[in-house]
Fold each of these.
Amino acid sequence: MSGLGALLPLETPAETHFRERVRAWLADSRQLVVESVPADENPGVLIERARQFQAELFAAGFAGISWPQEFGGQGLTAREEIIFVQESAPYDLPNGPLAVTLGMCAPTLLAHGSSEQKRRHIRAILSGEEIWCQLFSEPGAGSDLAGLQTRAEAVPEGWLVNGQKSWTTWAQFADFAILLARTDPQRPKHKGLTMFLLNMRHPGIVVRELRQMSGRRNFNEVFIDGVPVPPGAVIGVVNGGWETATTTLANERTFISASWPSATLTQRLVELATRRLPSLDVELGQRIADIWCREAVLRVLSIELLETIALDQSPGPAGSLGKLGRAELGELVADLETDILGLDSIAWQPGDSESASVVADILHAPGFSIAGGTKEIMRNVIAERILGLPREPRTEGGGAPFSTASRRVLLNDGTS
Ligand SMILES: Cc1cc2nc3c(=O)[nH]c(=O)nc-3n(C[C@H](O)[C@H](O)[C@H](O)COP(=O)(O)OP(=O)(O)OC[C@H]3O[C@@H](n4cnc5c(N)ncnc54)[C@H](O)[C@@H]3O)c2cc1C
C-alpha cells in the first residue's frame, strides 16, 4: 500500500530515501497493524501490543524522529517527521494507547524537564518501556483546570501530595505521571500550581478503573493519599505549573488532531455503506463527500502543526483549531455510521462483529469532543487567543488568592 504519494516541496534525495525506508518498513510490519478493535478488547492486550510496536518502531529508527539524539531520538528534522506521518496515514498503527505518553507527557518533559529527567525517561518512553499518564483533571476541575484542589505541600524532604484525579487515561498501566498540583493557595488561581513527575507505583496511589459506555476501559480515577515527592521531581519551576501545563495542552490538542483521521476513513465509510445498504442515495453521498473534504483540510492543518512542533516551537492556540475540527468530524462520522447501520446500531445479530465494533466507535465519539478540552473551550480559545475578541468574564476575582477566591465563587453559587 502506498502512502499519500505527494513528495514534500523540494524533497531532497536523502529525504526521498527516508520516505522509501519508512514505506518499506510499514509494508513489512503489516502484522503489527490493528485491523479493528473489539469493544470489549482487554485493555492490557492493547497496551502490550502498543508497547511491542513502539519497541519495533524505536529499533527501526522511527521513534522520536526529530527529537535530540542524546535522549534517544533520531535527531532528524520536521520534514522527516512529516514524511513518516504521510506514509503511515493509510495504517492504523497500534501505538494509539501510547498517545498520552508520547504526545503529551514526553513533549512536556522535553520542553520543561531537567537534563536528569530527560536522560532518565525520554529514551525509555520512545522505546516503549515506560507508560505515562496525565494527572490534570479532577471531579471539580476539567474546563476550569486551574481551579484544581490537589495539594502538594512543601515538607523538609520535598513535597507531600494529597488529592483525587479523574478521567485519567491508561493510568492503570502507567509507570509515571505528570501531575498538576496546587503548591501555594495564597497565590492567584493560575499562579500557585506546580507540575511534578510522579512515580505511579508509589504506595498511597490507588487507581480505580472506570468502564465507558462504549464498553472500553481506558479511563480511571486516581486517589493520591500522602505521597512524598522529592524536590528533583518538579518539572519546570515551582508555582510555574500553569505555563508548563499550557505546553502539555497545546501538544495534546495538536496530537489529537494529527493522530486522526487516517487517510482510510472515507474509504472505510464508503465500504461500510456499500456493504450494508441496498442502494446509496444522494444525501448520503453528500455527507460522505463532506467528511472527505473536512478530513483533507484537517490533514493539511495537522501537518502544519506538526511542523511547528518539530521546529521546536509550541503550536500555541492553533492546536485548538485541529482539535475542534477533529471533534466535529468525529460526530459527523458517528451520525453517518448510525444511519448506515440503522437498527443494527441498537441491536445486532449475534456474531455480527462489524456492527459491534462500529457501535463501540459511535459510542466513543462524544469522548473526543471532550478530551483535551471541550468544543466550547476550543471556540473560546480561538475567539480570545487567535481572533483577539474580548475575554469571557472570569470568576476568580483578578489577583485574589485562590483560597479566598474559590470560597467567594462557592458563596456566589450558593446564593444566586
Ligand atoms: C476520552 C477522554 C480522555 C480524557 N483523558 C484525560 C487524561 O488522561 N487526563 C486528564 O487529566 N483528563 C482527561 N480527560 C478529562 C478532560 O480533560 C475533561 O473531561 C475536559 O477538560 C472537560 O472537563 P469536565 O469533564 O470537568 O467538564 P466541565 O468542565 O464540567 O464542562 C461541562 C460542560 O460545560 C461547558 N463549559 C465549561 N466551561 C465553559 C466555558 N467557560 N464556556 C463555555 N462552556 C463551558 C463544557 O464545554 C461542557 O459542555 C479526558 C476526557 C475524555 C472524555
Amino acid sequence: MYDKLILIDMDMVIADFNDGFHRAWVEKFPDREVIPLSKRKDFYLTKDYGNVFKSDIVNILHSEGFFLGLSPLNGALEGFAALKKRYKEVRICTTPLRNAHSSYEKWMWVANNLSEEDASNMILCRDKTLIMADYLIDDKPNIEGLKTPVWKHIIFTQPYNIEIEGTHFQWGDNLEFD
Ligand SMILES: [Mg+2]
C-alpha cells in the first residue's frame, strides 16, 4: 500500500528546458537578445520573445536532440530521489511535442538521468487532467483539460509563475504536502 501518488512534470521541474533553449538560441542567432530565466514573465517562450520569433523558437524545440541534450535542473536529481524515498510512488508526467522523436528523447532522458524504471513508469500525455493522482508538481500556471483534475496542483516555482496564487514548491523545500 502506498501513501500518496505524486505526478511530476519534466520541463523546468526536472529538465532544464530553458537552458537548452538558450544554448541553441545563442548558437543559432548570436546577435539576438537573450531573455534570462530571471526576467521571464510568461510560461511560454513565444510570449516573452514575441510572436515574430515563433517559428525560430518552434524549430529549436522541435529539432532532433533538443530534449536529449537538456541538463538536469539544479537540485532536481537529488530532489527527485528524496521525493521517491518519501512517497514511493512518483511518476514523471510530461507532454511530448507533436513530433516522432520528442517522446523517444524524453523516455531516453529519464532512463539516462533517473532510471529505466522511472522511464518505464513515466506518463506521456497531452491532457494531465485525465490522470488520477494525489498531487501534480508542475511549473505551468494553469493546467486545463477535459476533466476537473483529481490531483492538487503544486506549482513548481519559476520566475514566470511566482505571482500565481497557490501552493508553491522548489527542490530543497519541505516534502510534506497538504
Ligand atoms: Mg514544465
